[in-house]
Each structure stands twice: as C-alpha cells, then as structure tokens.
Amino acid sequence: MYAEFKSVDRIGLGAKSVCVPPCASDLLSEVLQDLRLSNAIYGRSELTAPWGIQVPFKEGVRFHFVAEGRCLMRSDGLKPVMMNKGDVVLLPHGSAHEIANDSVSRARPLAELEPTLVGNGTYRLTAGGGGERSLIVCCTIGFEGPTANPLLEMLPPIIHVRRDEIRDSYIATVLGLMAEEVQTQRIGGATIMARLADIILTHIVRTWVESAEAQLTGWLAAIKDPQVGRALAGIHRDPGAAWTLDSLAAIAGMSRSQFSRRFGKLLKVSPARYLAQWRMRLATAWIRNNFMTVAEAAARLGYESEASFSRAFKRSMGIPPSFVKRPAA
C-alpha cells in the first residue's frame, strides 16, 4: 500500500495546506452544489388518452413532473413506473424511455409529434386521442463546466418521488411555478426556469440520499463514514495535494493499517488507487469539455510536467490524454 503512494509522490506533487471539512455532510453539500445546470430544455406536454411518447437517450439528466392526470413510464430492463398527479421522476443518466397513459397505448417517437418551440429552450407539445387529460412538465439538463460527479454517477437509472414523499412543502410550489412558467414567454423566463430546475434536481437527489433506498453502499457509505469521509473530503477538495497514506490516515484519525482496511472495505479499492482514479476522471472531464488543456490539467493536479501526467493518465485510462474526445465545434 505504501509503495503505491510512493509512486504517486514521485510525480512531483507540491505540498499544499488543505482545509478539510469537519464532517461528511459538508462534502455531500459540496457535491450537490456542483450539480449546477447550464444548458436545459423545458417542455410542457398537454396529452389526452390514448397517447404515448418515445423519448430518446440524451446525455445529461432528465426529469418529468405530472402536473395533471397520470402517466406510465417504461424503460428497457426496468420495472414500469406509474406516476400520478404531483409525482416526479428523475432519470440521472438520460436513459431512453417511453411515457404513455397506460401499458397498451402505442408510443411514437418524440420527433414525429413535432413539438413547438415557444421560447429559448422551451417547447410545447399537444397530442393524443381526446380522452383523459394529462399535463407533463419535462426538463433535460446539461451541467455548467465539466462534470465528474461521483454522486450523480452512482444514482440509479430512475428515481421516483411520489407526491406524498416530498418532505419539503415548498417543492410542490416550485413544481407548480415551473408548470406555469414553461407556458409563458416573459422576460427572464429561461433564468427563472433554470433556478427552479436547480432546486428540483437538488431536492430529488437529496431525498434519495436520505432515503433507505440509498442503502449506504460504495462512495456514499464511505463519505458518510465519520473517519474515511474526512479523508475523502480532503481528496475531493484538493486532488492535487501531495497526499500520502500517512496524511490521509492522519486526517481520518486512524492508523495507516486501520485506514487502509476500512477504506478498501467501503470502496473496494486502495486509497492510492482511488486518488489516481479521481484525478484522471477530473482530468478527462476538464479536457473533454475544453475546460483545460492537457498541460493545465497536469499543473492543476500537481504534476511536475505534462509528460509525467500523460504517463500516469495512460496507466490509469489506457489512452494518452491527447486521445480524449472533445465535443464537435
């Protein structure tokens, strides 16, 4: 274990003073704050039975709010979810899915239904056969800057929050405001919608984290551990610091051997391996999103040179950083 950290230290990480959060909830708060949306598409779908919509995969996060009526959500390999008025469903990974008024209605591709653009990033859709009415508010979210968010990555494919499970009364008001705002074209509408979606997304994720469904496994269990969580908080706050097994164990208030055993039990990797993986995930996000050059990422993560960083990146990711695909211009 210590040999692994010696190899990390040889890349030339400069010594830094690190402010470590006093408790794991601080890092959870920071991770939630990191979910700052930028690009978003909002939709208001007025649907009458029978109706069905095929929604394709799209990178990012989606949620649907049933303002009126009900709908059934289906996604390959997952149990169908019946949503009633006031329910919200979050799809953290942008999975392809279908929504329909029941289990037998045929779903048509969203593009075929020809949604009408009514504002900046806002559309309206009217479809169906004239029966029971449903009003669905939809949002597809992209995030501000690069995203390498461990909490977002560990969320299940679908999170269903029923109306009676919404703990904070103001969320129902926020959802109602979104349903109203999406149908208007008033000045500042896009900004207001972004703030409302930010609140809703954070609330849904927080509700899931606090629920028994989260089951406290993996990264979430580790960050909630009163000792290992402090070390993880240090790594996430300052990934370019000269972390060693000794320094991480000291932050955790444990011996090196105790810390290594508990860290490995919770996260299934050694502290050194986790540190390396986290650095390279950050670097990949920075480079892919044109947030930093390879040289800038190397410096930010504490490497002495671009060459030493590139070697470490290839060891961890299997390709050199110059091969990371960037979005088309």
List the helices and strands and how they pair.
Elements: H1 2-9, H2 24-33, E1 37-48, E2 52-55, E3 61-68, E4 70-74, E5 81-84, E6 88-91, E7 97-100, E8 108-109, E9 116-119, E10 122-128, E11 133-143, H3 150-154, E12 159-161, H4 169-181, H5 189-210, H6 218-224, H7 228-237, H8 245-252, H9 256-267, H10 271-288, H11 294-300, H12 306-317
Parallel strand pairs: 1-10, 2-8
Antiparallel strand pairs: 1-11, 2-7, 3-6, 3-11, 4-5, 4-7, 6-12, 9-10
Helix pairs in contact: 4-5, 7-8, 8-9, 11-12
- Total beta-strand segments: 12
**SS-derived structural category:** alpha+beta
Average of pLDDT: 84
Number of domains: 2
Gross morphology is elongated
Q: In percent, how much strand structure appears in the residues? A: 15-25%
What is the tally of helical segments?
A: 12
User: Cα-atom Rg, whole angstroms?
Assistant: 23 Å
Could you say what the CATH topology of the largest domain is called? Jelly Rolls
N-to-C series of helices and strands:
HHEEEEEEEEEEEHEHHHHHHHHH
CATH class label of the largest domain: Mainly Beta
Low-confidence stretches: 6-22
What's the main sheet like? 7 strands, mixed
Q: Can you offer a commentary on this structure?
A:
By secondary structure, this protein is of the alpha+beta class. The chain has helices at 2-9, 24-33, 150-154, 169-181, 189-210, 218-224, 228-237, 245-252, 256-267, 271-288, 294-300, 306-317, and strands at residues 37-48, 52-55, 61-68, 70-74, 81-84, 88-91, 97-100, 108-109, 116-119, 122-128, 133-143, 159-161. It has a seven-stranded mixed beta sheet with strand order 9-10-1-11-3-6-12. The chain has a five-stranded mixed beta sheet with strand order 5-4-7-2-8, with no helix packed on it.
